[in-house]
Write a structure and sequence with these properties.
With about 325 residues, the protein is mostly helical. Helix content is about 55%, strand content about 5%. The structure holds adenosine-5'-diphosphate and tryptophan (TRP).
Length: about 325
């Protein structure tokens, strides 16, 4: 049975980009045949977090978000990365075969430094821990966004290096599954750059009411009146609207904007439609989230069970790696 695995960092509230770029695929895949491991990459989050209270709450909120969006915590294995300390052990073993050159080529390290993160050893060896996450459960398929593709390639590389070094088939080669073309188009943020926690341009996927409208008011527009004909494909608003509206309504709105004149929607109207779209899309998940917030025992139970299942799997892979390398 194919093993699917992916992880997400609890480094903030999850936003529309995380949903369309990652979580939606994870939940959809988890309904297919096979084994499914989804985890909250809290060890990884420590490469940037210095606020224990915030981290604790983001870990919980990330778990609740997955469950609210439909991940079945009984059939899939949802767990906290740090509940499986074996991954740090395996990461050490992989670090002994990972070439410096391989890590030095990592673009995400360079990007993070450029954004002002401190160049710590943890940040530099991030891909080794990520390789361990992938290899510790014998993953076959790793669904990720394009920004993580290089990390999965590095995991393939480390698995092959370790197996070759010790002439043993300890680690299985994982394959990546890139998000579909349409949905893997980067979701833009309020300012038109890629939506990202690091750019303060996100929309929390469970935002509603006034705070949602306030956020959407920050979407960059211009001072052209509604009556002036415009090219909808050049408007940031449509890059967000297309995620929530059905094709018929989208085309109709685009046509009115293109034609302009009396009755054409203004930016305010489009923002209102977007707010409604977001609220409707996530309404069932918001309801489920409220239930989970009220029943904390359920989330704890799911994470504890997930951690146990994951840990048992990782321990057996770790044992084989120790055996092959001469440490047992
Ligand atoms: P952030 O940039 O907000 O820190 P992460 O790097 O933690 O987000 O990304 C977590 C997952 O969400 C990754 O798989 C990434 O591909 C996806 N993702 C993040 N932002 C976007 C976006 N704007 N559009 C599409 N996918 C995104
Ligand atoms: N690095 C991933 C991100 O920032 C999170 C992650 C950690 C991950 N370990 C993983 C993703 C293993 C897939 C597989 O989004």
């Amino acid at each position: 049975m194919a093993v699917h695995l992916s992880g997400i960092q609890p480094s903030g509230l999850l936003h529309l980009g995380n949903y369309f770029g990652a979580i939606r695929q994870h939940v959809a895949l988890s309904e297919q045949k096979g084994e499914h491991f989804y985890f909250i990459a809290d060890y990884h989050a420590l490469t940037s977090s210095r606020d224990p209270e915030a981290l604790r709450s983001y870990i919980r909120e990330t778990a609740i978000t997955y469950l609210a969006l439909g991940l079945d915590g009984d059939s899939a294995c949802l767990f906290r990365q740090s509940d499986v300390p074996e991954v740090t052990e395996i990461a050490w073993l992989l670090g002994t075969v990972a070439g410096m050159g391989l890590l030095e080529r990592a673009t995400s390290y360079k990007d993070k430094i450029a954004k002002g993160l401190k160049p710590s050893v943890g940040l530099f060896t991030y891909p080794v821990l990520m390789a361990s996450d992938i290899l510790a459960y014998g993953s076959d398929i790793v669904p990720v966004g394009k920004d993580q593709a290089q990390h999965v390639e590095m995991a393939q590389d480390m698995a092959a290096s370790f197996n070759a070094a010790f002439d043993a088939e300890v680690f299985r080669r994982p394959e990546m599954l890139l998000s579909e073309e349409k949905s893997s188009r980067k979701v833009p943020g309020l300012d038109g750059q890629k939506m990202s926690k690091s750019y303060d341009n996100t929309i929390w996927l469970f935002e509603t009411g006034k705070p949602l409208r306030k956020a959407l008011n920050r979407i960059v527009t211009d001072s052209r009146p509604p009556t002036e004909p415009k090219n909808p494909d050049e408007l940031l608003l449509f890059d967000l609207l297309h995620l929530f509206l059905d094709d018929g309504e989208l085309q109709q709105l685009k046509t009115s904007v293109r034609e302009g004149g009396e009755g054409a929607p203004g930016y305010g109207d489009l923002k209102n439609r977007l707010a409604e779209g977001i609220e409707d899309w996530f309404a069932p998940a918001r309801e489920k989230r409220e239930l989970l917030l009220a029943d904390t025992g359920e989330v704890d139970r799911i994470l504890a069970r997930g951690g146990e299942v994951a840990r048992e799997r990782a321990a057996s892979v770790r044992d084989r790696a120790l055996e092959a390398s001469g440490l047992r």
